[in-house]
Structures are given as C-alpha cells and as structure tokens.
Amino acid sequence: MHPSARQYRPDPPAAWAGGLLTIDLGAVAANYRLLHDRVGPGTTCAAAVKADAYGLGADRIVPVLAAAGCRVFFVAHLAEGAAIRPLLGADSTIFVLNGAMPGTEADLHGLGLAPVLNSMDQIARWQELARRLDTPLPAALQVDSGMSRFGLSDGDVDMLMARAAPLAGIVPLLVMSHLACADDPAHPANLAQRTAFLRLRARLPRAPASLAASSGLFLGPDWRFDMVRPGAALYGINPTPGHPNPMRPVVRLQARVVQTRWIGPGTAVGYGAAFIADRPSHVATLAVGYGDGFPRVLGGRGIAILPGRPEVKLPVIGRISMDCLAVDVTDLGDGPLDAGTALDLIGPHNPLDTVAAAAGTIGYELLTGLGARYHRAHVTDDAVIDDMQKGSSA
Ligand SMILES: *Cc1c(COP(=O)(O)O)cnc(C)c1O
C-alpha cells in the first residue's frame, strides 16, 4: 500500500454524494497518444502529473499513461513522486520539478526519483549526496530562459562552467526550461525564450533538451526538442486557446438536485439576497458549492445543463454557498425535476475551459481546486471500471 491522495479523500459512494465527478481514462489515453503522435518518434512525450494529476487522481491516471506508453513523469513535490513510484516500472523516470528541499536529497534518491536542479544550491546539495554515496546521481538541469521562476541564470552558468568539473557526480538526463507565454503563439517572449534556451543549453554539457509543455508543443517542431512535457492537454484543457480544442474532454462534473420550489416575483434567493426573481420562477437547490471547489464567483454567471435538454441553459442564480447553489430551472417547463437528478456543471455543453473563463480563471485552477466530496468515477470507453477496483484497494 502506497500513500496517495486518495487515502485522505472521503470519496463517498455515488448514492451518497451531492456531486459526481466522472473522469474518462480512455480520453486521457487518447489525448496522450494524440500528443505522442503529433511530436513524432524523435521526441519523447512525457507527462506532467503534479498536483495529483491536476486533481484527477494520480493513482488512476499514471497507470493509464504508462499503459499508453509514457515512461517519463513530472511531479512538483517529493511526496507526489513517492506516491506514484510504486505504480511504475524501473524503466520509468520521475522528475521532481521543485527539486529537493534541503535535507531531503537522500530521501528523494532513495525513493528512485530524479530532481530537477534549479539553482546552484540544489546542484551543490545533489553533488554532496553523490560524493557521500560515491556514485553519480541522475538529475535534470533547469535553465531560466526568461520566466524568472526556476533555473540557472546566465551568471549561474558562468560560475558553474568556470569550475574544473562542473557536473561532477551528476548524470544529466535533461536540460530543460519552461515557456511563460506559449498559449499565445504571437507573443514575442516565445522566440526570446527559445533563443535564450539554445544559448544556455549550448554552454552546458550535452544532454537531451526539453522546453515545451502542452501549448508549447503546438507552437511547432522547433519547440519540441528531445522531450515535451504536457500536462493540461492530457486532461482535456485546450492547449490552443482561441482555436478549437484538439483534445478529448476528460472531466464531467454533475451536481444533484436536493429540492425545488416555486417562488413569486420579488422573492430573494440565497445569501445577501443577491438575486430577486422578476417572474414566477422554479428554483432548484443543487448539492455542490464553493466548498467543493466550484468557484463562488460563478454565482450569477455559471450555467447548469439537464442531460438530454442541452438547449436550455439553466442559470446559476444568487450567491453560491459552501455546500449548495441555486439554479433557475423555470425554462425547463413545468415537468418535475426529481430530487437526486444530476445536472451538468461541467460537461459536453458547458466545457471546462468555458466554465473556467466565466469564473475568470483557467481550467488548470478549476481542475486542481475540485474538492474531496465528489463521488469520483473513473470510466473507460463508457464502462465504469472504478468502484470495484477502488473497493479492493481500500
Ligand atoms: C506544469 C508544468 C508542465 C506542464 O504544463 P501544462 O501547461 O499543464 O502542459 C511542464 N513543465 C513544467 C516545468 C511545469 O511546471
């Protein structure tokens, strides 16, 4: 048994849950293959599975990616790497993007993880461990090509390469950097970062190179180098904003009706009386709120969809509460909306990126913020494969 995020998730049975989160593992695999095929055989397609695979459950996503052929994984934290290491074979590499916090180098190495070395300090501490163990240790080297977040600056590279044996004790598996503006192909920072990356890379010992994540790999072949590191696109987020999404949607979020009521004109709904009905209205209270990571800012802006009635956009009215939200279902007609009915908050007719944009954020934040109270069903090719396996691994 390995520690995983799942163990501290309540993740109730479907019948108990107010919200249902359906994660299409078949779509994740198809998205991986699409990206893999797009970059072609000369470029390794890795996968970013940090933050519990963008909130979708690394314990379920990682084996699917491995089965699809992925052998290189990126997490942010040591603990995330430790959680997925037992899911992967010895032929897989797990890079820890943040590197090792001081004093955790031996743990990181002992767990079979490779740090991304972002600073002179991280390099020194990794070399120190290699000296102690008397063996060279694998790592990626990050250079700062213009994002000013992680990686060696030009000055750092000067200092490093002035040494007699700059990378003594290090097996450099990768030289990498990260693009700040890849979702905007016209942004001049892209070319500037590529130029800086080429310059810095040329000054370091030869190693495979990686610059692009999801959006970067869609900038074209010049951006792909030896390895690409998509995350978001695997999970259905559009890597080409402003253009049709080439990826398959992965996530469906549904909220259950708790009760419905008819209210007259002038009647208020929710905290702050922020919504006042201007007509006789049929209002449904759904069992998902901001405590489930559904953004409070979507009060008055979000929509719900009744499956089978996609032409009727049901507006989220009033303020979103911690545990519930209200939807105006009047336009569905007088038909009953039974308690327990599941309405889509993210689905085929209200896609993730659109919902995120309405909330003033991005799909990344919405996904990673999804809460612990949903019933999570991992499906593949529309067959629910999940509950049985979940039961046996509990
Ligand atoms: C998160 C991250 C990725 C993946 O980015 P996406 O935009 O989700 O594809 C790749 N590389 C680094 C360094 C990252 O931090």
From TrEMBL:
<dbReference type="Pfam" id="PF00842">
    <property type="entry name" value="Ala_racemase_C"/>
</dbReference>
<feature type="modified residue" description="N6-(pyridoxal phosphate)lysine">
    <location>
        <position position="50"/>
    </location>
</feature>
<dbReference type="Pfam" id="PF01168">
    <property type="entry name" value="Ala_racemase_N"/>
</dbReference>
<feature type="active site" description="Proton acceptor; specific for L-alanine">
    <location>
        <position position="271"/>
    </location>
</feature>
<keyword id="KW-0663">Pyridoxal phosphate</keyword>
<dbReference type="InterPro" id="IPR020622">
    <property type="entry name" value="Ala_racemase_pyridoxalP-BS"/>
</dbReference>
<feature type="active site" description="Proton acceptor; specific for D-alanine">
    <location>
        <position position="50"/>
    </location>
</feature>
<dbReference type="GO" id="GO:0005829">
    <property type="term" value="C:cytosol"/>
</dbReference>
<dbReference type="GO" id="GO:0030170">
    <property type="term" value="F:pyridoxal phosphate binding"/>
</dbReference>
<dbReference type="InterPro" id="IPR011079">
    <property type="entry name" value="Ala_racemase_C"/>
</dbReference>
<dbReference type="InterPro" id="IPR029066">
    <property type="entry name" value="PLP-binding_barrel"/>
</dbReference>
<protein>
    <recommendedName>
        <fullName>Alanine racemase</fullName>
        <ecNumber>5.1.1.1</ecNumber>
    </recommendedName>
</protein>
<keyword id="KW-0413">Isomerase</keyword>
<feature type="binding site">
    <location>
        <position position="149"/>
    </location>
    <ligand>
        <name>substrate</name>
    </ligand>
</feature>
<dbReference type="InterPro" id="IPR001608">
    <property type="entry name" value="Ala_racemase_N"/>
</dbReference>
<feature type="domain" description="Alanine racemase C-terminal">
    <location>
        <begin position="250"/>
        <end position="379"/>
    </location>
</feature>
<dbReference type="GO" id="GO:0008784">
    <property type="term" value="F:alanine racemase activity"/>
</dbReference>
<dbReference type="InterPro" id="IPR000821">
    <property type="entry name" value="Ala_racemase"/>
</dbReference>
<dbReference type="InterPro" id="IPR009006">
    <property type="entry name" value="Ala_racemase/Decarboxylase_C"/>
</dbReference>
<feature type="binding site">
    <location>
        <position position="322"/>
    </location>
    <ligand>
        <name>substrate</name>
    </ligand>
</feature>
<dbReference type="GO" id="GO:0030632">
    <property type="term" value="P:D-alanine biosynthetic process"/>
</dbReference>
<comment type="function">
    <text>Catalyzes the interconversion of L-alanine and D-alanine. May also act on other amino acids.</text>
</comment>
<comment type="similarity">
    <text>Belongs to the alanine racemase family.</text>
</comment>
<comment type="pathway">
    <text>Amino-acid biosynthesis; D-alanine biosynthesis; D-alanine from L-alanine: step 1/1.</text>
</comment>
